[in-house]
Every structure is written in C-alpha cells, then in structure tokens.
Amino acid sequence: MATFFTADTHFGHGGARGLYRRPFGSIGEMDAALERGWNAVVGPQDEVWHLGDFAIGPKPAAQAALLARLHGRKHLILGNNDSAATAALPGWHSTASYAELVVDSQPLVLCHYAFRSWRNMARGWINLHGHSHGRLAPMPRQFDVGVDPRGFRPVALAELLAATRLRAPRLRATASEPPHEDPAP
Can you tell me the distance from the alpha carbon of 103 to that of 117, in angstroms, rounded to the nearest whole number? Predict the structure, then answer.
C-alpha cells in the first residue's frame, strides 16, 4: 500500500481551465484527464489524501459516482470550495480541516492552505498543501501537491523529496577561492 497526495482537482469547474491555464478543451476533457491521471498512479489498496477543492459544480450524486471510480482509500482535507455536501460524500474514509500523519517515517502537516510556520517545522516536519495552484514560492520542507504543478495526478512523498534532492547544487566562489558546493538545505 502506497500513500499519495493531491489537491485542487476542481472536478466540473469550467473556470479552472482559464484561471489556472489548464490545457484542456472542455470540462469533460479536463475531468477525464484528471480521473485517468489519478487511476494511473493510485491502486485500489493505496491511500490518497486530497487536500481540498475536490469538485465545484457537479451535484452530489455525480460527485459520489466520480469518487467511487477513483482508486484508493480517500481522505479529504477540506478546502475553501468544498461544500458540506462534498464533505458528506460516502466515498471519503475521513474528512477534516487539518491532519498530522507520518508517512515513510516522515512527519507531515496537511492543510488546504500553505503555512508560514507549522508544528515542528524546525524538527523536519513537512507541510503539504494545495490552494495556490503552483503560484506560491515554497518554503523549505513545504510542497504544493495540487494537480496544476504536479502533472494533473496525485504524487507520492518520495517523488516530492526526490525532486528537492535532485536540484542542481548552488555554487559560490570568491576571486581567491575555487567554487564549492553549498551544503544541502
């Protein structure tokens, strides 16, 4: 069983195509691509934490049918666009406004919104969030798991951490010293 994170799918939201420059010709095309992306990486036994803004527009029955087609055991961290009807859908294993959990020995703080500070941030805890659609510069140990910056699919923690570690090292030098790598952040 693997654990995945996502946010800001905005299923059924026509405005998402323009607001977030999503490359889809219609709402139906966008929703189908999001569903395919989800099910391509998430297996039936996997855990998925959706960090808010699941759907905007579809009636509860349509949202419930969609949620049933999406693989995994699903948790909803409420976003600003999640209605009471969305939170009450039978496909959610849990719903909350905030969560703390440990995945692969890594403590996490989950919320729809990005934090400037969070519990135990100086002790290595990581903040995962949505809401900003990839438009907010992250702080160290903070990741936007929304679909817009993550290829329109859920992402595993290992993938987020690997992307951070693979960045090119920063070099600094003075006229009298040879360049050397800065220590990892």
Answer: 20
| C-beta of residue 32 within 8 angstroms of C-beta of residue 59 | no
Would you say 34 and 152 are in contact if contact means Cβ atoms under 8 Å apart?
yes
For 3-160, CATH gives 3.60.21.10
What would the pLDDT profile of 48-106 be if each residue is shown by its tens digit?
999 999 999 999 999 999 999 999 999 999 999 999 999 999 999 999 999 999 999 99
Kindly report each contact of residues 110-117 with a partner whose C-beta sits within 8 Å and lies 24 or more positions away, as own/partner. Answer: 110/5, 110/49, 110/51, 110/77, 111/51, 111/77, 112/7, 112/51, 112/52, 112/53, 112/77, 112/78, 112/79, 112/80, 114/138, 114/139, 114/142, 114/144, 115/142
Q: Are 130 and 52 in contact (CB under 8 A)?
A: yes
**Quick check: 48 and 55 in contact, CB under 8 A?**
no
Instruction: Domain ranges for the chain, please list them.
Output: 3-160
**How far from the centroid of its chain's Cα atoms is residue 107's Cα?**
16
- Say if residues 151 and 136 touch (Cβ distance below 8 Å): no
pTM: 0.87
